Amino acid sequence: SFRMPLSYDSSNYFAEELPSQSVISAVESIAAASMNNNNNNNRKRGNKSIIIASDVASKAGVSLSQARRDLTKLAALTLGDIAVSKEGELLYSFPADVTSVLSNNSIKYKASRFVRDKVWPVVFYATRVSFGVALLASIAIIYSTIAFVSSSSSSSDTNDDRRRSRSSLGGGGFLFGDGLIRPSLLDFFYYRPYYYGYNSNPQQQQRNKDPNNEMGFLESVFSYIFGDGNPNMNLEEKRLKLASHVIRQNRGAVTAEQLAPFCDNVPVIIEGDENIDSSLGVDEGYVLPIVSQLGGEPQVTEEGDIIYVFPDLQLSATESSSALEKAGLKPDATAREIQRELQLAGIDVRGVLEKDELLRILNQSLLNMDNDGTSTMLPVLQEEELKFSAAGDFQRLAAGALGIVNLFGALYLGNLLASPSLNGARLPGYFGLIQMSYPFLLAYAILFNIIPLARSVWINQENQKIQARNQARRSWYTLVQSNIGRLSGRIAKKLRSAQLFGSSIKKLGTTNSEIVYDTSQAIADDEAKREEAALKDFDHKVSS
Fold first, then answer.
1. 3-state secondary structure 76-102
2. Which of 65, 103, 325, 526 has its CA 20 to 30 A from that of 542?
3. CA 310 → CA 53, 295, 299, 330, 443, distances in Å?
């Protein structure tokens, strides 16, 4: 058992390694569900529930190696216990309130949680709003300087009695008698060799945006420039969750075709191709990331096909009745009751009599349901397409229009500052500072318009790739479903072979006889030995 020492060096507070938040959430969810299940008493130790790495990997969408590492870290920080089963599997025990215990025992976790939940949202919101403020400030600065320079030129013209009325067109502007060049709108179409250069590399920041929250205009400026983050940031977690579910649903043994709906770079299937079995290649490298992260082992059949077996996912410490409970059935529901429930849901189960097969179909149907239990979706990894901005249409239009106004003003101000009358001269006071900062104002105005334009082109290209990947995954799912139950065909034969390699999910921690070592018992034995030694020492002192 892991225990925090009473005296802990403060220098180690922030040196300790913390488990990932996804694993912490998964452990808390599994522990809470286990504690609330009245039929799970045989898998509790005191007020703690038993959890194994494969359950956490499936729930959190992480690799088995990361699940084991993070569970060990979590046990060290939450007074958790570890037991070893006869199969060599580590059984972790945690209290239901993992987060509160972790916060009490780890200053680093408590501080990081405070920063994540309290500080970072405020700081990032202020950062987003600052871009809107900067745009308005830039417009105000540019046009106030234009007004000052223009008014100064007008005053000079009024006091100059010798001003001549002739003017000539030169260099894109009008040359008046006093030698002052007055810029015109045509100036923006002429090349000016004395324009200031610029160099800026703004750093993009990402954020998951709640679409239900209306965005203010100042915040929408940031959204217009940089967008609102990648909606597929948790794609890997989702990939492993879906793959784990399908692997366990098929008793721990699957083919590459069954994993293809969750992979990238899968071969493209031509729909309607009658020779699809023979046209598919033998390269199954696209499944290797999932196989390696979930502990898969390739097995070769007598026909030379490869079946991927996942021994760790054939073990579990959670209740198998969870699917029945989600469907509103009793944990001891019969095969007939499950069949009736599936038929009421519109699922054809005629000829299916085995309870294990009915449970597999029930799990599949639950995977297809959203949280509200009404709408359905294919059990296929689907990437969300990138959005240009989550801001409203009017807000995007206003941000774009103000960006053009700002660029127009910056170019116009550049013509004024580049006029011969201001050559080598510095504007007084505040406007002199603006004159010195003009290269930065021009760079900001150009980048404000360039970045959204370039990002729009990039988003269109990426969305085409996302659509192609999603379509390829759906095609593989359709192909696999069409081969289930068939008697002929290479894929149908592989699916039948995979069933032979599968085995029912074995439940761990059901009895104490399965445990060969338990840290909680070891500590109790040590305490008993210390007490016995203390009593013997006391008796010895008294007798002497």
1. HHCCCEEEEECCCCEEEEEECCHHHHH
2. 526
3. 13, 6, 10, 29, 56
End-to-end Cα, the chain, rounded Å:
38
- Using only C-alpha atoms, what is the Rg of the chain? 34
For strand 315-316 and strand 506-507, is the pairing parallel, antiparallel, or unpaired?
parallel
Helix and strand counts by DSSP (H, E) for the chain: 19, 13
pLDDT tens for each residue of 471-522:
999 999 988 888 887 777 888 889 989 989 988 888 886 666 667 677 766 5
Give yes or no for residue 452 having a pLDDT over 90: yes
Residue 488 has φ and ψ, to the nearest 5°, of: -125, 160
Kind plus residue range of the DSSP H or E element containing 233: none
Residue 124 near residue 205 (C-beta atoms within 8 A):
yes
Enumerate residues 6+ apart whose C-beta is below 8 A from 182.
153, 173, 174, 176
Describe the strand order of the beta sheet including 48-51 as a list of residue ranges: 44-45, 48-51, 90-95, 81-85, 515-518
Q: Which 3 state secondary structure label does DSSP give 198?
A: coil
* Torsion sign over Cα 327, 329, 333, 336: negative
Could you tell me the sign of the dihedral formed by the alpha carbons of 326, 327, 328, 331, in that order?
negative
Instruction: Write out pLDDT tens, residues 55-92.
Output: 999 989 999 999 999 999 998 888 888 888 877 888 88
The answer to whether 103 and 9 are in contact (CB under 8 A) is no
Cα torsion at 432, 434, 438, 441 (round to 10°)? 180
Predicted model pTM: 0.73
The pairs formed by 424-429 with CB atoms below 8 angstroms and a separation of 24 or more are 427/145, 427/148, 427/149
Contact between residue 224 and residue 396 where contact means Cβ atoms under 8 Å apart: yes
Q: Are 114 and 104 in contact (CB under 8 A)?
A: no
Three-state DSSP class for residue 20: coil
DSSP state, residue 206: -
